[in-house]
Every structure is written in C-alpha cells, then in structure tokens.
UniProtKB/TrEMBL annotation:
PANTHER family noted in UniProt: UNCHARACTERIZED PROTEIN YQGE, UPF0301 PROTEIN YQGE
Protein name listed in UniProt: UPF0301 protein
Family: Belongs to the UPF0301 (AlgH) family.
Domain of life, per lineage: Bacteria
InterPro entries given in the database record: AlgH-like
One Pfam match: DUF179
GO cellular component terms listed in the entry, alphabetical order: cytosol
Length: 173
C-alpha cells in the first residue's frame, strides 16, 4: 500500500536562491506527504552535529553501526520526532513507499532493528518540515520552491553540501 501519495508527493523541493528563511536556506526537501490538509517532508542536506551513537546512548538503544554516522535535521517542526528514510528491505502497510528501493517509516521497532544491523542503509531525521493547508502550493507559486521529480541518487547524498548546488544546476541547466 502506498500511503501519503498526492499530485506533489513524493517529490523533491529545491529552495529558491531567494528563499532566505534560515530553516530552509539552500535546502533540498523530500516531500513525503501532501494533500488538502498540508504537506510534510524532511530536509535531505542538513546533518546534525551529533552521531547516531550519541543519540542511541541517550535513548538507551543498542547501536552497532558506524560510529561516525550522524543524525539529520529533518526540519524545524517537532525536533524530537524520528523519521527514518530506508533503502532496501520491505516496507509495512503504514510506511510510505517512495520508489522501488526507498521508503519512509516512523516505526520504532524498525529503527531498533536498523541500528543493530551494520549493513543497513538508512538515515534518521529528527524533526520535519511542515506546511498548512494551501501553504506549500502558495510558496511554490511565489517561487520559493521548485518541484523536481524524485531522484533516488539525491536521497542520501555522500556530501550534503553539494546537494543544493547540484539540484539548482539541474533546474537551470
């Protein structure tokens, strides 16, 4: 089952160079959900200065992955909420399928299993970007965001600082 699909989601939103809000300056957002009530996504290019190992220690969760792996700032809303972007594996009915290999999940049991599987490929986002009813549509019309199709190669960039310039270049040619 594909949850949260709409005319816009899933897709990527690239912040316009004119968007100066510090929460979204030079950001690329994975738009996960969008409907008449609003939208929700995660910022793909904002690593946090905290490792997954530190988060797991504070949360009393087991962790056997890369000790340098970081958590990511998903957005300014609800920074205690964890959202997982997973590559590979089988999504459950409540997960949001993005493409053939990637999905979004909010399940703590899935996070716990990913944290102890060193070969798993995932990103843990804390917080999210949210828009109220009609807000995102208006911001797109005003030129704050450019909608681009989902690009799986951009979902987990090795160098997050290069994602926004790459996205801008893909738009402007």
């Amino acid at each position: 089952m594909i949850v949260g699909m709409s005319q816009l989601a899933p897709c990527l939103l690239v912040a316009s160079p004119m968007l100066l809000d510090p929460n979204f300056l030079h950001s690329v957002v994975l738009l996960v959900e969008h409907d008449e009530a609003g939208g929700m996504g995660v910022i793909l290019n904002r690593p946090l200065p905290v490792t997954l190992q530190q988060i797991c220690q504070e949360s009393r969760l087991a962790f056997t992955g890369d000790e340098d792996a970081t958590a990511w700032r998903g957005g300014p809303v609800d920074p205690q909420r964890g959202i997982i972007l997973v590559r590979g594996g089988l999504p459950e009915a409540e997960d949001t399928v993005l493409d053939f290999t990637d999905f979004i999940s909010y399940r703590k049991d899935l996070l716990e299993s990913l944290l102890v599987e060193p070969r798993s490929t995932f990103r843990l986002f804390l917080g999210y970007a949210g828009w109220g009813a009609g807000q995102l549509d208006q911001e797109i019309q005003e030129g704050a965001w450019v909608r681009v199709p989902l690009n799986p190669e951009w979902l987990m960039p090795e160098d997050p600082q290069e994602l926004w310039p790459l996205a801008i270049q893909s738009i402007t040619g």
